[in-house]
Design goal:
The protein has helices at residues 21-34, 84-96, 110-118, 136-146, 192-201, 266-273, 277-302, 332-336, 340-372, and strands spanning 4-9, 36-41, 51-58, 63-70, 74-77, 101-102, 130-132, 148-153, 163-169, 172-178, 184-190, 208-212, 224-232, 238-247, 262-265, 307-314, 320-326. By secondary structure, it is α+β, with helices and mostly antiparallel strands. The strands form 4 sheets. A 6-stranded antiparallel beta sheet has the order 7-12-8-9-10-11, sandwiched between helices. A 5-stranded antiparallel beta sheet has the order 15-14-13-16-17. Strands 2-1-5-6 form a 4-stranded parallel beta sheet. A hairpin with a 2-residue loop joins strand 9 (163-169) and strand 10. InterPro entries: ATP-grasp, YheC/D.
Length: 380
């Protein structure tokens, strides 16, 4: 029996280097076990309305091979929209090939997402206060109210371009962060006037958001948060795959693994901060409950999704906050903490969901034919 085909929509980092190729290899190996052939391509690889040059991984020779073939019927979109041009190219592809099954839909940028989530009264309490950047004066108003804020590019990923500003005295402020290349910016202590001058040099614009800061600092000065992964399973249902803690490197304001962060198990991280086993259990249950609530709500606004990575903060009182939601999450955090079974599950679930989607389409096709069997053809 021929394997089912799953297309992975990717993007080139350079003329020939694909982002996430190591993950696609693992996806291919797990796909082989399930009878799924993973075929990787980019919009640039399309050769006609129905044909494409794809990459498939051959485990026997341990190499990727390229071949000309028809477009796969199911598409797993793994493109990160780091530039407006990429977004336009990928949107054009999706629009032109809307007959294909897409496992997910693009979500909104940070500002639009904040507005959408704020509409839901059960999700709103988990969202930090956020405004679009308008001026340094407005930024300072938010800073003086919350004493700690984050300034983020609305389309940023991986901790790029994020600033952390804290009021540490009546007339003293501390600015830290990463530039757009993800390099750590040296901590800068400043008076209000000096801070205003410094912020002007950073050329902030309405493409940034200003967000209430949540205290994420550990005793050693490093910051932390949690990455929760929720995915559709082989029955088309949401299921929490796993959750782990992330700790940023020294002098970093973010905990992203790509920015040098380290990973620890969820229980280890929570036990480090809370002594009550009952409190820890309550926090874990609320994290999971919130994940289902958020996933179901986002599907009502954006359509079918296959997986979501949620960056969650837990403040010193145990309150849960959503820092960010990502429709194209990595799953490396589970590999880092040695949870091999969780990591494998995180890789295989999109494959199992793709198989379920194909099965649904096959079952729906005869029904559609049956529904149309009594309809008189009036086109001639």
């Amino acid at each position: 029996m021929a394997p089912q085909r799953l297309g992975v929509l990717a993007i080139y980092l350079s003329k020939s280097r694909l982002e996430e190729l190591a993950f696609f290899r693992k996806l291919s190996l797990e796909g082989n076990k399930l009878g799924v052939q993973v075929e990787v391509f980019t919009p640039q690889d399309i050769t006609s309305d129905t044909t494409v040059r794809t990459l498939t991984y051959d485990p026997q020779i341990k190499k990727w091979t390229r071949r000309q073939t028809t477009l796969p019927p199911v598409i797993y979109d793994r493109c990160r929209y780091k530039a407006v041009e990429n977004y336009r190219i990928l949107q054009a592809f999706r629009k032109k090939h809307d007959n294909l099954i897409f496992l997910s839909r693009p979500l909104a940028n940070k500002w639009n997402m904040h507005q959408i989530l704020s509409e839901n009264e059960t999700i709103r309490p988990y969202i930090p206060y956020t405004v679009r950047y308008s001026s340094t004066q407005e930024l300072l108003k938010v800073l003086k109210k919350y004493k700690l804020i984050y300034v983020k590019p609305k389309n940023g990923t991986g901790g790029r371009g994020i600033l952390r500003i804290e009021q540490i005295g009546s007339e003293l402020f501390l600015l830290q962060g990463r530039n757009l290349q993800r390099t750590i910016i040296a901590p800068y202590r400043a008076t209000e006037k000096q801070l205003i001058v410094k912020l002007h040099t950073m050329k902030l614009s309405p493409d940034y958001v200003v967000q209430q800061g949540i205290d994420l600092t550990l005793k050693d000065g490093r910051v932390h948060d949690y990455r929760l992964l929720i995915q559709k399973n082989g029955s088309g249902q949401w299921e929490v795959t796993g959750c782990a803690g992330r700790i940023g490197p020294h002098r970093s304001i973010t905990s992203n693994l790509h920015g040098g962060g380290s990973a620890v198990s969820l229980d280890t991280m929570l036990s480090h901060r809370f002594s009550s086993a009952e409190k820890i259990e309550t926090i874990k249950k609320e994290m999971n409950s919130f994940a289902f609530k958020l996933a179901n709500f986002l599907e009502t606004r954006f359509g079918k999704l296959v997986e979501l990575g949620m960056d969650i903060a837990v403040d010193p009182k145990g309150r849960i906050w959503l820092l960010e939601v990502n429709p194209k999450p990595s799953r490396e955090v589970f590999q880092r903490i040695g949870q091999k079974a969780t990591y494998r599950k995180a890789v295989t679930r999109p494959l199992e969901y793709a198989l379920w989607m194909l099965k649904q389409r096959k079952e729906d096709a005869p029904k559609a034919d049956q529904d149309n069997s009594g309809v008189e053809d009036t086109t001639s």
